[in-house]
Amino acid sequence: MDSACDVVILGGGVIGLTTAYFLAQKKIRVAILERSEFGREASWAGAGIIPPGHPDRAKHPLQRLRAISSTAFPKLSNELRDLTGIDNGYLPCGAVELASGVDAAAIEVWKDEGIAFEKMSPQDLGKLEPEFARLPEGGYYLPGAAQLRNPWHLQALAEACRKLGVRLESRTPVSELELDGSRVVRARHGDRSWSAANFLVATGAWADELLHPLGVRLGVHPVRGQMVLFRLPARPFKPVVLQGSRYLVPRSDGRVLAGSTDEHVGFDRSTTA
Ligand SMILES: Cc1cc2nc3c(=O)[nH]c(=O)nc-3n(C[C@H](O)[C@H](O)[C@H](O)COP(=O)(O)OP(=O)(O)OC[C@H]3O[C@@H](n4cnc5c(N)ncnc54)[C@H](O)[C@@H]3O)c2cc1C
Predict the structure, then answer these.
(1) Within-domain flag for 14
(2) Any ligand 1 atom below 6 A from CB of 202
(3) In this structure, what CATH number is given to the domain that contains residue 34?
(4) What order do you get walking across the sheet with 240-243 strand by strand?
(5) Which terminus of the chain faces fewer neighbouring Cβ atoms within 10 Å, N or C?
(6) Strands of 49-50's sheet, edge to edge?
(7) Pair type for strands 2-10 and 30-33
(8) Quick check: is 142 in a domain?
(9) 40: CA distance to ligand 1 center in Å?
């Protein structure tokens, strides 16, 4: 059986779902084919830290993407709540980057983009949060940073897509992409197929696995990140605290997420930390 629509998105993580949401708002007919359940891979696991940014001043495409996301979140979060009744937990909370985790290149990016930041000693940080006065080093305060509850956001996005008429096909691993010349024209799963004028590969760490038979190699690879979730009686401090790739994310309900390891162990999901 072959189904046709305007755009077929392969992979239903945050990238696939967000793209589908914005396309469907423009009345474009979209189907998302997801191998397992929607939003349950990297997107579910992410800590939900949203760094600040100014898209118009970002120099690199990746920085521009980060900045566009950052500025889109307040409106997107309101829209999703209005449409689905699901609060994604978006919270402007600021962030403190400890000095030992910040290099000159990061400061350059903040300056280039006009991102607000302030260099602070432990005493200055103690005025933000009394506990921070005990930190062994100072850092940089970024008032524009925010955070999000990823599972809530994914549920809101999937529900919003459903309401806008996106065809959500879970448990549908795409095993083959059919070409006409150099263009993908059909995706296959078993005896089902989907044809469209445009395909978007949003299969995250599995992108190369899917594209390999077409001779395309993006060089995307999986990175395992293990975290610990603490439950405290109340939120101990408000800003996210970062030191390089390590972070503490205080949730408003008293949970504190501490992460993350950064391990190049392929698709091994075992917990070892
Ligand atoms: C521990 C950790 C913490 C993180 N913290 C942050 C953070 O604080 N802030 C931040 O911005 N980012 C963070 N990230 C990164 C962020 O989570 C990812 O960049 C983002 O989730 C990637 O989304 P995605 O949709 O590309 O991938 P995924 O969420 O992995 O989605 C890809 C989807 O494609 C599906 N798929 C794969 N193969 C096929 C196939 N053949 N057919 C159909 N479907 C297929 C998968 O099942 C999956 O659902 C973190 C990541 C990790 C691991």
Answers:
(1) yes
(2) yes
(3) 3.50.50.60
(4) 118-120, 139-142, 95-98, 240-243, 246-250, 255-259, 228-231
(5) N
(6) 49-50, 146-147, 91-92
(7) parallel
(8) no
(9) 8
And the tokens for 268?
């091994």
Mutation test residue for ligand 1: of 43, 97, 175, the one with most atoms within 8 Å of CB? 43
- Digit-coded pLDDT (tens) for 150-191: 999 999 999 999 999 999 999 999 999 999 999 999 999 999
pLDDT digits (tens, 9 = 90+) for 129-154: 999 999 999 999 999 999 999 999 99
The answer as to whether 54 is a domain residue is no
Q: What is the mean pLDDT of residues 187-197?
A: 95
Q: Provide the β-strand partners of residue 200.
A: 9
205 CA to centre of ligand 1 in angstroms: 7
Q: Mean pLDDT throughout 193-213? A: 96
* Boundaries of domain holding 156: 1-48+149-221
Q: Copy the structure tokens of residue 77.
A: 């979060």
Query: Which residues on neighbouring strands pair with residue 198, listed in sequence order?
Result: 7
Residue 215's pLDDT is: 93
Query: What total number of domains does the chain contain?
Result: 1
What string of DSSP letters covers 151-192? HHHHHHHHHHHHHTT-EEE-S----EEEEETTEEEEEEETTE
- Looking at the domain assignment, is residue 245 inside a domain? no
How far from 168 is each of 11, 30, 34, 37, 175, CA to CA, in Å?
10, 9, 8, 10, 17
The answer to whether residues 7 and 25 touch, using CB atoms and an 8 Å cutoff, is no
